[in-house]
Amino acid sequence: MAIGSAQQNISKRIVESAPVLIPSKQILDDFKAIALPQFELIARLRREEHTLAATRDALLPKLVTGEIRVPDNGDPSDVIERVSEAVVAAAS
Questions:
Q1: How many domains, in total, are found in the chain?
Q2: Calpha distance 75→7 (Å, rounded)
Q3: What backbone torsions phi and psi does residue 78 show, to the nearest 5 degrees?
Q4: DSSP run (H or E) holding 41
Q5: pLDDT, tens digit, for every residue of 59-86?
Q6: What is the dihedral of CA 6, 10, 11, 16, to 10 degrees?
């Protein structure tokens, strides 16, 4: 539908003449029922991504300098969990 040889563009006339389907309320509601949980998941994962990045940024310098150590015989998740909680609390 675009016109022009060097730089194609779409004229107002072409846009106005294009047929547009307007979905019924039922179709919109069905779409919303499917899409909304996906958008909520995206938002939740983005928040988690930011929390994980903040945890990484807080832990990495401390691990490199030896300020915190991961126990050889312990569960590393115990250390990570405590630091993660501190980072989240500081961000709030």
A1: 1
A2: 62
A3: -65, -45
A4: helix 25-65
A5: 899 888 988 877 676 676 766 777 777 7
A6: 170
